[in-house]
Design a protein that fits this description.
The chain has a domain of 255 residues: Rossmann fold (3-Layer(aba) Sandwich), CATH 3.40.50.720. It is an alpha/beta fold and 426 residues long. β1, α4 and β2 form a beta-alpha-beta unit. α4 runs parallel beside α5, α4 packs across α10 and α7 packs parallel to α8. Strands 3-2-1-4-5-6-11 form a seven-stranded parallel β-sheet, sandwiched between helices. A two-stranded parallel ribbon has the order 7-10. It has a two-stranded parallel sheet with strand order 8-13. It is globular and about 55 Å long. It is 47% helix and 14% strand. Bound molecules: the ligand O=C(O)[C@H]1O[C@H](OP(=O)(O)OP(=O)(O)OC[C@H]2O[C@@H](n3ccc(=O)[nH]c3=O)[C@H](O)[C@@H]2O)[C@H](O)[C@@H](O)[C@H]1O. The ligand O=C(O)[C@H]1O[C@H](OP(=O)(O)OP(=O)(O)OC[C@H]2O[C@@H](n3ccc(=O)[nH]c3=O)[C@H](O)[C@@H]2O)[C@H](O)[C@@H](O)[C@H]1O binds next to β8.
Amino acid sequence: MPSTEDELFPSTPGKFKIDRQSNMLNRQFNRCFASTSTMFLWALFLIALTASYLSFQSFVDSGSRYFSASLGGIQWEKQVRNSAETHRSGGISVLVTGAAGFVGTHVSLALKKRGDGVVGIDNFNNYYDPSLKKARKQLLENHKIFIVDGDINDFKLLSKLFDTVAFTHVMHLAAQAGVRYAMENPQSYVHSNIAGLVNLLEVCKSANPQPAIVWASSSSVYGLNTDVPFSESDRTDQPASLYAATKKAGEEITHTYNHIYGLSITGLRFFTVYGPWGRPDMAYFSFTRNILQGKPITVYRGKNRVDLARDFTYIDDIVKGCLGSLDTAGKSTGSGGKKRGPALYRIFNLGNTSPVTVPNLVNILERHLKVKAKRNYVEMPGNGDVPFTHANITLARKELGCWVTQLYNSTNASIQSLLALIYAKI
Ligand SMILES: O=C(O)[C@H]1O[C@H](OP(=O)(O)OP(=O)(O)OC[C@H]2O[C@@H](n3ccc(=O)[nH]c3=O)[C@H](O)[C@@H]2O)[C@H](O)[C@@H](O)[C@H]1O
């Protein structure tokens, strides 16, 4: 008779293990379920286990519900829906990214004023004083526009917005702006202008219905192009800054989403936009501040002391171009992430068509401010600037219809607003 357990099993290792395990299980099974009362206890235990698992699941669900309250919650969803509601027949429902930015604020207000639904999203980053962005947010809220504090890289948040509202359009203005800052913080351009854009497009392509997208490209894509005025068909493969390169990349990226998923895309190449509620990093703003404070200003010059020139464009013209683009965008054709037919892909210059040299800009500021500027002329550092910009807007005039270029006399309105901001220490 075998005296030990081991002697019961053959010596083949694989088999040994299996048999040994099954034997052990058998013995455990025998021990545990030896009597019906123990079986009854086991049944009770299993029921309790199932019940606690189910209640844990509901805890997890309510937890994720609670978590999404930071994205949403019932109150939040209500605010989003109310803000997105249209108040005119044939109105559109627009998600405006970068809504607390300069252009975003003006476009949001204009849409709301004509009865469209608007929901804004902005990450309130500190590229420039966020208190200016908060002040713009307050202005928008006064007009019953709800602004979500969030980043376009947040896939969950964007998806939730599209789950809450079937946006017909996206006006994509969130971006890392500024040409020269790209040398200081290159990653921020990749984060917003590339990764953020792709994230937004990923959400839009899966949305049902897919929205039509209008977004801000830039005059900087013309880079070192020397054909003037700049036309949409001109070459754009010589960017002078990382900013320009990310905007150019955006044009290519949006093209692929148009091609693969049937998203309607309109890219707008803005030319140095100025006006009330403008950006403090831009020359007309920083020059105004310095002139008023008696500080010198640095005026860049090109090679051989050639003046730099910009096709400075007034914000109201840009707003008209944005609204005209939204109105003519046509529908995206895809659904469920699949293309169902060709959709519009367009690019337009939005510029003033009459460049002004930077020294002349300073003259105009001096006239309005009635203060003489202390000018330091410096050769343009090789940090992303281009010598001049000049828009040909024939295409925008023809296809957007509403395009009427204003003259530079709108400077006064801008300056009054800048003064208010400067005195408010923004
Ligand atoms: O159209 C665009 O795509 C871009 O427009 C804007 O860029 P820019 O045209 O560079 O505007 P802005 O900074 O106002 O400089 C104006 C002029 O002043 C010169 N400039 C500037 C600063 C300074 O200290 N001295 C100076 O001479 C400077 O050399 C330039 O000649 C947006 O910021 C950018 O986000 C993008 O949208």
